[in-house]
Amino acid sequence: MHTKVEAEPLKEEMSGAEIFIQALKNEKVELLFGYPGGAVLPIYDALYKMPIKHVLARHEQGAIHAAEGYARVSGKPGVVIATSGPGATNLVTGITDAMMDSLPLVIFTGQVARGVIGTDAFQEADVVGITMPITKHNFQVRQISDLPRIVKEAFYIATTGRPGPVLVDIPKDISAEVMSPNFELEVDLPGYQPTLSPNVLQIKRLLEAVKNAKRPVVLAGAGVLHAKASEQLLAFVEQNNLPVVNTLLGLGTFPAEHPLNLGMGGMHGTYAANMAMYECDLLISIGARFDDRLTGNLKHFAPKATVAHIDVDPAEIGKNVTTQIPIVADAKEALTKLNEECDAKPNISEWLAHLTTYKEQYPLWYNNCEKEISPQHLIELVHECTAGNAIVTTDVGQHQMWAAQYYRFNAPNRWVTSGGLGTMGFGFPAAIGAQLADREANVVALVGDGGFQMTLQEMSLLTELDLPVKIVIVNNNALGMVRQWQETFYEQRYSQSIMQHQPDFVKLAESYGIRGIQVTSEEQAKEVLQETLNKREPILIDCRVSRMENVYPMIAPGKGLHEMIGVKR
Amino acid sequence: MKRRIVSATVNNQSGVLHRITGLFTKRQFNIESITVGVTEIEGVSKMTFVVNVEDDRQVEQLIKQLNKQIDVLKVSDITDQAIVARELALIKVISNAQTRSEISGIVELFRASIIDVSRESVTVQVTGDSEKMDAIIDLLRPYGIKELARTGITAFPRGSQKSVANMKQYSLLK
């Protein structure tokens, strides 16, 4: 696994900061998300003269979530810079989020000068120690001559194999030191050799299992997106006529409106998807990691199935679910091979008919609220008004689940959500990054009133960078999912889940120089969304939705896939 | 619980031990001991872990997680191979003129050595496998152990696997 670097001989002496910027240019970085501070002043000084665009977030958490949104939509690594100490610790949530959802980020933190590391110096934090368990890998630059190599390796590690965040800690005196750099490097990491090509024997075993299966189902996760393998997935599925379940993060890998799609599986998945996983005799997982929110109680997860697991990370195979057919490979390479080798399709018309019955008899449902806006209907309106092809970002919670259920994603890389970590405050800055990655796209930040208040200061960027992001607040005046759980599992003791005082979001938007509109009825919502969602300007729409609405159906904690509650029969 | 001995070769870089113990903590693996030291190759260290796992799946997961670390070059569970595994213990035993010769008798039997003597105590150094350590400690305990330090196991596969696989060196203690 050697990558030849284009040599760019730069004979003259450069400072560490200049070497760093040059190294970023060599990696074709076009955008930095960050926030300056003492320990990165030499880097920001070098940046002053350089043509790389820098986005000044208003909080480091905003910067890193924006970088995540950028990475998710562009497929390129998101690059983040923060200063030492508090700058770096403010990134911790975003780094963990990127780690859980396998997003390629390269994060640079300033560090105090080498001479004072370990003395509890001003703005010193052991960032390498802090971020070790939440990064794919991290580095501290100990001498200036290592800087070009470390930057090269950081980008290589972040973007290859299973993507993930890589952090590089740069002491201030290294940024200031001067040397003649050598950028002619090869990445040589003997301890890091991701397996991308599948084992042909295992591929044949899987195809044999597919051929003989009576009740097969495909589970498509975000690994399909990372491998850019949606086309190959569609071909494989259609060739064999297999039903498909998507994970939360895998939405859009397979068209929502395709007749073979059963919808999302898991805690708030569809009845058809969950029963398919419960009743199947062959489960083919592609780039999914069997999160507990997907599997429910593992005892009842695919109890009758032979499990085939395709994953580029060997440690995912067998981690949660016992696997009979393990395939360590990049999803695209595995699917391509499967499509090549496939010779006969299984005879499963009965199974498909059975699943269709489930789809028809137990669809997603919601109550029409008479006086207020039904949040589910609000999502359907957003879907309608954006013709289903907006980039939708969310935080975690009720609005996220409704978006997953009712915004039907037919294409990959349109759905940006915080899956594994479930991060409040993710959605809005991620929308900024998404819009920067795709200037033409219609970007909608679907956020809750709780999460939005965690990162709303980033509204400054909408005017500053001229980003036509639409903020749709699904405002129920509460931490909706917390309130729902308290209602269901804590006998309606609403401990600290109702917001007693909310800001005037419209005025808040106006104070940041963007238009704000409050909507309180479905009729008004439809009108406003139709009028605003396709405008090329940032707009905040504060939608007052029904306060007591809950997300259904649901698998209660500790229950199995077949024990869904809130299924309409 | 099963006891497994896992051997890993790693890049000898600062922070690697932290990286690996952090991984054990994060993934809830139960460590009995870790030893680290340099190898014949410059820049490469060897670590030996003794871990207690519930089943084979857990040890497989442990090895996979270790393999994911970029600074880890090679990992193997060597428990079932023919291996050379050694531990060192220093034991400070209360002793006086009457008991000293008894103690030195035990020490000789174990091919251990007395490396320090004072008026009230002797310090015994012993190397061998864990059972041998346990056995000598058991025998010395009645005299009164003032201080005890064990290194944990360091191990690697034997030079030739089959021929010496069943040779037990300390038959005396079994």
Automatic annotation (TrEMBL), chain A:
It is an enzyme of class 2 (transferase). Keywords: Amino-acid biosynthesis, Branched-chain amino acid biosynthesis, FAD, Flavoprotein, Magnesium, Metal-binding, Thiamine pyrophosphate, Transferase. InterPro entries: Acetolactate_synth_lsu, AHAS_TPP, DHS-like_NAD/FAD-binding_dom, THDP-binding, Thiamin_PyroP_enz_cen_dom, Thiamin_PyroP_enz_TPP-bd_dom, TPP_enz, TPP_enzyme_TPP-bd. Residues 14-128 form the Thiamine pyrophosphate enzyme N-terminal TPP-binding domain. Binds 1 Mg(2+) ion per subunit. Binds 1 thiamine pyrophosphate per subunit. Its cofactor is Mg(2+); thiamine diphosphate. One of its GO terms (molecular function) is flavin adenine dinucleotide binding. It catalyses: 2 pyruvate + H(+) = (2S)-2-acetolactate + CO2. Pfam families: TPP_enzyme_C (PF02775), TPP_enzyme_M (PF00205), TPP_enzyme_N (PF02776). Pathway: Amino-acid biosynthesis; L-isoleucine biosynthesis; L-isoleucine from 2-oxobutanoate: step 1/4; Amino-acid biosynthesis; L-valine biosynthesis; L-valine from pyruvate: step 1/4. Residues 395-543 form the Thiamine pyrophosphate enzyme TPP-binding domain. The keyword Electron transport does not apply. SUPFAM superfamilies: DHS-like NAD/FAD-binding domain (SSF52467), Thiamin diphosphate-binding fold (THDP-binding) (SSF52518). The keyword Metal-binding applies. CDD domains: TPP_AHAS, TPP_PYR_POX_like. Residues 203-338 form the Thiamine pyrophosphate enzyme central domain. Gene3D superfamilies: 3.40.50.970, TPP-binding domain. One of its GO terms (cellular component) is acetolactate synthase complex. Signal peptide: none annotated. Its EC number is 2.2.1.6. One of its GO terms (biological process) is L-valine biosynthetic process. Belongs to the TPP enzyme family. This is Acetolactate synthase. It comes from Sutcliffiella cohnii.
UniProtKB/TrEMBL annotation, chain B:
Pfam families: ACT_AHAS_ss, ALS_ss_C. Dimer of large and small chains. Keywords: Amino-acid biosynthesis, Branched-chain amino acid biosynthesis, Transferase. Its EC number is 2.2.1.6. This is Acetolactate synthase small subunit. PROSITE patterns: ACT (PS51671). InterPro entries: Acetalactate_synth_ssu, Acetolactate_synth/TF_NikR_C, Acetolactate_synth_ssu_C, ACT-like_dom_sf, ACT_dom, AHAS_ACT, AHAS_small-like_ACT. Catalyzes the conversion of 2 pyruvate molecules into acetolactate in the first common step of the biosynthetic pathway of the branched-amino acids such as leucine, isoleucine, and valine. GO terms for biological process: isoleucine biosynthetic process; L-valine biosynthetic process. SUPFAM superfamilies: ACT-like. It comes from Sutcliffiella cohnii. Belongs to the acetolactate synthase small subunit family. Pathway: Amino-acid biosynthesis; L-valine biosynthesis; L-valine from pyruvate: step 1/4; Amino-acid biosynthesis; L-isoleucine biosynthesis; L-isoleucine from 2-oxobutanoate: step 1/4. The keyword Amino-acid biosynthesis applies.
